[in-house]
Amino acid sequence: MINIVDIFKDISRNTSVSVGMEINFLFGEWAQIAREMEILSKSPITESGKWPLLALFTPFEEDKGDSDLYCKANIDLMIATRTLSDYTNNQRLAISYKEILHPVYEHFISELAKDKRFDFGSKNVIPHRYVDNMRYGSRGVYGSDGKKPFADLFDGIDILDLEIKVKKPNCR
Q1: How many folded domains does the chain comprise?
Q2: Are the beta carbons of 167 and 119 closer than 8 angstroms?
Q3: Cα–Cα distance measured from residue 92 to residue 98, given in angstroms and rounded to the nearest whole number
Q4: What pLDDT does 85 receive?
Q5: 87: which residues sit within 8 A by CB, 6+ positions away?
Q6: How far is residue 4's CA from residue 46's CA, in Å, rounded to a whole number?
């Protein structure tokens, strides 16, 4: 059986190599990702590997209605890196976005386009919405319970409604 989480884990590894920095890949709901990040914070060894983060948000629905494909899905992801509360927006743009987040995003999209398990059509266009989300770093993230699940402030790129078509295993 094909597992979308495993595919994105592979793409995250490939992105780490191509961009030249180790990327922490996590998946789950906000609260679960926050818990895993908190666990990583408890040791100086694992703390250093928390950022940048590529988070795949679950659950997502797999549409199995096309007999030519394994499935279609719209997924949401976030690329994030730690920031400091005293940075100005210009500093965050320069340090977080231009130095880390934008290069990771560009390499991630490139690796996604190269992955033969997906069908992005003859033009290899990857439909999605993109948001440079500076609110995470200025106000933090609040869960549905009104609490802040993340101890760190971070800057992020939201990748929303990423439309994937997963090929059947014999169609690579």
Answers
A1: 1
A2: yes
A3: 9
A4: 85
A5: 95, 96, 137
A6: 26
